[in-house]
Amino acid sequence: MPNPDPTFQLNPKYQRLHSRLISEPKVWLITGVAGFIGSNLLESLLDFGQSVVGLDNFSTGRRENLDAVLGPRPDAGSRFRLVEADIRSLEACHDACTGVDFVLHQAALGSVPRSIHDPLTSSHVNVDGFLNVLVAARDARVARIVYASSSSIYGDSKHLPQTEDETGRLLSPYAATKAANEMYAGVFQRTYGIELIGLRYFNVFGRRQDPLGAYAAVIPRWAASLLRDEPCTIFGDGETSRDFCYIANVIQANLLAAAGSPEGATDAAYNIACGDSTSLTALFYMMRDRLAEYRPAIRSAEPRYEDFRPGDIARSFADISRARDSLGYEPTHRIAQGLDEAMHWYAASAGLTALPVGG
Fold this sequence. Notes:
There is one protein chain. By secondary structure, this protein is an alpha/beta fold. The chain has a domain at 6-204 and 246-275 and 317-332: Rossmann fold. It has helices at residues 12-23, 36-47, 63-70, 90-97, 112-117, 119-139, 173-192, 218-227, 247-259, 280-291, 321-327, 335-349, and strands at 27-31, 51-56, 80-84, 102-105, 144-150, 195-201, 204-205, 233-235, 241-242, 245-246, 268-272, 278-279, 304-306. Strand 1, helix 2 (36-47) and strand 2 (51-56) form a beta-alpha-beta unit. Helix 2 crosses helix 9 (247-259) and helix 4 (90-97) packs across helix 6. The two termini are 38 Å apart.
């Protein structure tokens, strides 16, 4: 087995969970397994000695992500089964849930702007597809479902830091789909007894996050633009801020929620973030300075400002005390450490290596 993640030193509960899973392996379903978060979860679970079923229709997920995980692990093929299908197919969901202990539901059509452009498809995938996963997991007697919710649920709430019980008016169809997921999850636990935990992700970033496409998230989009000497656009005055959360924190939260948390932690949704807030202008300069270590000309780049976009919230800043207390979640990567790793990955993907100090 690979060496344990050094972040275990910062969260002994996660280390104990790792040891237990190694000795008592389980079968996991990851929906959206070829996506950014899904493929990272797959990588960790395989390294934990687990068996995984992956469900993906590759509408937004990428086969290259699976190749990046499975390629260096030729022995993992016997512990991974891919169901290439859409969560809008109940039959496919039933197939994927067969023999599964835990479900990590990541499949969705993300992006606020995409949902504003096409609310019907967002609803069909994010709500109807989620309902199919719930029904199939219930029928297969899955022990627990952990599902991806979103900080977009906070809408226009002025309450900072954002606590799970203080939400505002929803500002996009995407936010509405995630709110519907949380309502359905609560109903299924109370009606059918299946255990569910929602994770409200706050601006997740990290390796294998796609920089391409109209709806790419800000960090991979800017990384690609900086490496191509193209301008980076900030919508608004740059003071819009986000609680950026590195992928290692999200992996930890999913595994703890599924297999490391007590029954009393279920029928609830938790903020998964770092409890920090970084302005978009500050983020730009943090990224620029790190990528300049690989290509010095990047150091002269400056952002371009355009009008605010509809549906965007002004500020996200999470209170993560409930996730700490109930799940044992403890973020191991703040934005600085996360950007160090993420920018290294994007630069390496572009064939760049860091220049020597003074080079």
